[in-house]
Amino acid sequence: MRGWSLYAFLFLFSSVGFAVKSQDFKTCSQSGFCRRGRALAERAKDAGDAWKSPYSVDPSSLTVSPDRASFMAAVESSLYPSIKFSLELRVHDDGVVRVRMDEVDGLHKRYDETASWVLPKEPTISRDLLWTANNTAISLGYSRGKHDDVDVVVTYNPLTIVMSKNGKPQIMINGRGLLHMEHYRSKDTPAVEGSDNAQAVLDTAGSRAWFEGDKEEDFWEEKFKSWTDKKPKGPESLSLDIDFPESQRLYGIPQHATRLDLPTTTGEEAVYSDPYRLYNADVFEYSASSPMSLYGSIPVLYAHHYDGTVGVFNAIGSETWIDVYHPSPRSSQTHWISESGILDVFLLPGPNPEDVLAQYGRLAGTQSLPPLWSLGYHQCRWNYVSSDDIRAVQSRFDAEDIPLDVLWLDIEYAEEHKYFMWDHKTFPDPVDMVNDLSAYGRKLVAIIDPHLKRTDDFPVYKEAQEKGVLVKSKNGESDYEGWCWSGSSSWLDMFNPKSWEWWRRLFAIDPPKQPEGWHWTQSTKDIHVWNDMNEPSIFNGPEITMEKDAVHYGGWEHRDVHNINGMLFANQTFKALEARMSPPERPFVLTRSFFAGSQRFGAMWTGDNLGTWEHMAVGIKMVLANGLGGFSFAGSDVGGFFGNPEPEMLVRWYQVGAFMPFFRAHAHIDTKRREPYLLDDPYKSIIRDTIRLRYAMLPVWYTAFWKASATGMPVLRPQFVMFPGEKNGFGIDDQFYVGDSILVKPVTEEGADETQVYLGEDEHYYDYFTYTMYRGAHEGRLITVPAALDQIPVFIRGGTIVPTRERHRRSVSLTKRDPFTLRVALDHQGHANGTLYLDDGDSYDYHEGGFIWREFAAKRVKTTITLSNNDHGARKPGEAVAGVDFQTYSPGNEFAQSAANVRVEKVVVLGLTGKPVSVTLGGVELAWEYTPGYGWLERQDGGKASVLTIKDPKVPIAKYWEIVITL
Ligand code: NOJ
């Protein structure tokens, strides 16, 4: 216990300097397999044209499957003729190509289950393929469809796999010959078996090419600080070059605190000296610019140029490093070095950002549609210390008229950090406390971490131990033990299917469905869950995580599944919360650690950031990158986790937070309280207005979330996604679009009173608050806009219609019957369009068509603009809108009927060319007023748009109507 106390002390209070303890985490040169992988790349580079990959396909082994959608072939390496590999290519019906390679009959089995944790279902296989084989290669083309200009060629010797479009290579695997599937071997196996080609490789490379040095250092045992990784199965790594000869920019592979357009890691002008690392870890106080690992990993990468986008998803759950380089301004190279597992790579053919994002979404699943309340404002800190504290915070929010949806409890609610167990000294009446929140439509989120205190008076631990669902230590015999908040702890092994049902039962609400066993007493359906520390964070483990030779279900080592581990914990929590209600309600689960697939189950945040301007800025880029990784529901701790931000910084941070998909303020236990009501004016009022703005714009957010869940398009869209052909905007990552209508440039600089905004299209932009007009350009242009502390640069894109709800309410659920305002921002031809998605916000009825979908249109014909609210339920059943099948949708559904009285209370039309002669609904004149200003015909940079305000037209939001504006 003494050891633990000292550790806790160091952990909590050594953070005064606020800098990442980089010495706690490996660099590539401290990791044997990464060093070997990089050394291989160096040798290949030095050898130049003389370098030849030793891997080749045995053409006589080629078999195309009877359905012609895949082929298998044997692969060998001339360095190790006795080792056999298998190669498989499969083609999905959306053009995605899956490449798998594994060792055949190896000394041990390589981990091959990563994709099965990621893919919600087996993809449909293509039926439209043409295969042609000759002496040197086998190629496949698509006989028809969207990808008939794409082909994939597998060259036998050396083995390369190239996806081309119109004959131009787009994705190239092993083009540089860095493929190396380091096979399992015993210590006495020679490093190189010897053959002509092996000798050639060795000769040209000038040394033992496939090993870093003369001695096999770090192969069989590896030390880092005081830890030794015994590597019971010996070395096993995978090196793979994936190049993009036609792509200028690379995006993706979250999570890293860096630019969206990934900076280089090799070459003379490399921005970083280490590769990007994917190895989920508790890197608190992380640097605001670094390729270091953070809490989550999504191994998906997009390569973009103005005439096309392609992508790769590398389904690998072990530690992975990725080098990034641009050999020329128009091409990109990547080198992936992983510690273990098979090769399982999906090639995404594009051809544009929307397509690659949809292709990835079809593979890994899309963002789950969150409960509507979870898009409201969340107030957290470590810790609200008692139930009365929670009540007091809620009443202060109400007293100050600041909207609030969720209050949070960090680890101190739980007696001795035994999660699920209320500390009754401070939380004597948990159910009453939650009911006091529920009375205002609010929720509580309580933390549940994966470490279980090893004590007999913790039933969760006892049951897990008895059921055998804890991770095992390296010999697989005893339960793994380490240190975390709860002192000596063990960790749940969610790879074990036996844990799933059991975990579900723990969350049962009284009376539990299954009678036997323990469950979370004193819980209600309004408690949702925060899964933290699930990398897992282990204070006395190497790199603050689990030893790689710890053992999971199925005998797999932790090294094989490390990056997947956190996802499984949070996903099972989500399923457990879902199961507590029948019919189920949408749960909310926040996870710190994540992997490809986590997006199907909740939200993430960017972990322990600092209260600095740099962190405020990089948080935006991280959230954008996460969205590209399919995981849109993301945000950073508003205010910064560490430190005590000055009021100005706090205000700016709220302005950022209100435009992040997940909007939560959080703070470290050592920080001063900083709830918005504690500030003086003007700061308090500005924050109140900012939170109210978030609530007003919830229809925009919810519609964007629905589109993300339906199509894979991120909720926050970066510049290159919005304007794939406009190359000057590719590097822009400090501004973004919410959905497709709202452009935001949060201010992240101290003392700013103006800022620059990039407009990447030749279109009008209207300041959201003042209706000042600006005009962009095809090749993009910067405008300067005012940005004093009470001003957030938010713009409506010309040509869009934005639905909002502007009544001030205490929480989201109280807005459900509120009327709408429509802002119609005319484009430079006098047209506009917008969409609205609406449902009950809690249930899954939307799966059965229980929702409202509207398409608003302002259509100009000469001097008449017709504004209509259209019903696409009238379309043919099965017809897809925005990628969504409307088969189950019927305009008369129950939810739509329940919203029949919800009306539009105001319509604001921006950019008319003059005062209307009439504004009518069904031939009857409406009440309106007009403020002259600039119209859609004029180019403006700072003048006010004309504003037509139609007052309470009393038209329903859910029914067809037409308002005719005659000029
Ligand atoms: C680490 C998390 O990142 C932080 O948000 C939380 O407050 C602490 N753990 C305590 O639970």
UniProtKB/TrEMBL annotation:
Residues 1-19 form the signal peptide. Residues 368-704 form the Glycoside hydrolase family 31 TIM barrel domain. GO terms for cellular component: glucosidase II complex. One of its GO terms (biological process) is N-glycan processing. Gene3D superfamilies: Glycosidases, glycosyl hydrolase (family 31), Golgi alpha-mannosidase II. Residues 820-869 form the DUF5110 domain. Residues 712-802 form the Glycosyl hydrolase family 31 C-terminal domain. Keywords: Endoplasmic reticulum, Glycoprotein, Glycosidase, Hydrolase, Signal. PANTHER family: ALPHA-GLUCOSIDASE, BCDNA.GH04962. This is Glucosidase II subunit alpha. It comes from Fistulina hepatica ATCC 64428.
